[in-house]
Amino acid sequence: MTREQDFSSLLPCAADVLSARKAWLMTLAGLRRLSPLTIKAYERDTRQFLHFLAEHLGKMPCLADFATLTVTDLRSFLVARQRGGAGARTLGRGLAGLRSFFNFLMGQGLAEIPAVHVIRSPRQPKLLPKPLGIAEAAKIIGQDVQSEEKPWIAARNAAVLTLLYGCGLRISEALTLKGKDLTDQGQVSLYVLGKGEKTRLVPLIKAVGDAVAVYRRQCPYFLAPDELLFRGARGGPLQPAIIQRAVQKLRSALRLPDTTTPHALRHSFATHLLSRGGDLRTIQELLGHASLSTTQIYTRVDSEEVLYIYEKAHPRA
Question: Which residues are marked as active site?
Answer without folding.
Answer: 170, 195, 263, 266, 289, 298
